[in-house]
Amino acid sequence: MVARPVPADWLALRRQADHRARESAVELLDLLTHRLQPGDADELVVVDVGAGTGSNQEWLAPRLPGRQRWLLVDHDEELLAVDSTVEATADVTTERAVATVDDLHTLVPRGRHVLVACAALLDLLSTGELEALADVVAPADAEGVTALLSLTVTGEVDLYPAHPSDAPLADAFDAHQRREDRPGPDAATVMADALRRRGAQVEVRATDWVLGAEDGELLRRYLDDRAAVAVEHDPDLEPLAHEWRAERERQLTAGVLTVRVGHLDLLSLPTTTTTTATATATAAAEPAQTGP
User: Fold this and answer.
1) Does residue 4 fall inside a structural domain?
2) Do 262 and 157 touch, CB atoms closer than 8 A?
3) Residue 209: exposed, middle, or buried by beta-carbon count in 10 A (0-12, 13-18, 19+)?
4) CATH code (residue 67)
5) Is position 239 within any domain?
């Protein structure tokens, strides 16, 4: 699913920024909960792909209606073993599965009350994995399921004050993200197109990180990793990245550095069989068109 392990401490550092960013796309939740409104006997099954240490469940579970059964899926057993911050209750239960995107077709049930979810995952997947995920959400031979695919990076990073080295480091970072057939910063667009081709209704909203002095620990880690990845892609950038990182540290210490990191949330709604049947019946009832 992901080429290299995602450190648990990085997931912990970014959790607050992720949750804050998602508040800007709460209107997607209105569309989602309207579609998933359960009856008294219904249980919502949520398959959380690339669940990591459970941040997505922590944010999303309290905002979903009714009884929920979560399946946390990740290829990294150690991340799944981290204690969840969501306590098991009569309304929310949690199971875990060590699996990859290629296994999802055996893990995602079919039905009206199913949600496929992920956070900060799509930009780590290859084109083939994105297509496989789209096949699970919107299969050609069955009715699709609802999906909320959150916090995909877009490659748009604005640092203030600007620095001459921002552009070459960004180019190297984005090129690294696109290695090995990964769309990287284009992943949200690729996924939206793949779902629309399969007939799903897709809504996309911005969920950008906006980071400042109050996010010092996260910002330091973000800047360190950004410089390291750029140099990994192009070792000739090492002196430039070192100088850039030192200047950014001075600005961060002075409290004058702000960073916006572009992210997108994507909501996919299936075309219901009722809608499809109605459209088919309407078309069949219309008189055939003849040529001039």
Assistant:
1) no
2) yes
3) buried
4) 3.40.50.150
5) yes
